[in-house]
Design a protein that fits this description.
Layout: E1 8-10, E2 18-23, H1 46-58, E3 63-69, E4 78-84
Antiparallel strand pairs: 1-2, 2-4, 3-4
């Protein structure tokens, strides 16, 4: 929302603990022309993974967030994979009267 993009969400896992965000347009790619020679493993867009992981931690959801595809590496889209590390416990709260 803050970057002005809307990702597509795909979920191909039967246990329903992981999904992917697919970005057709990545605004961070516009600031990088090409990766430096000898630095092909460098991922400028890891900033997005850190933002998503931090936001999930703020609501007490532990997750592993990684890049699966990146436009800077020649892929057609940018895909971020999110895997929840543990199930959130369902707690029932009773209102105090």
């Amino acid at each position: 929302m803050y970057l002005g993009i809307t990702p597509s969400v795909t979920c191909n896992n039967s246990s329903r603990n992981e999904f992917s965000l697919i970005l057709d347009k990545n605004p961070l790619v516009e600031f990088v022309e090409e990766l430096p020679a000898g630095r092909s493993s460098l991922c400028y867009c890891n900033l997005l993974c850190g933002i998503i992981r931090g936001a999930l931690e703020m609501v007490h959801l532990a997750a592993d967030v990684t890049f699966l595809q990146d436009r800077l590496r020649g892929d057609s889209v940018t895909e971020i994979g999110i895997t929840f590390l543990k199930k959130r416990e369902e707690k029932k709260y009773r209102r105090k009267k």
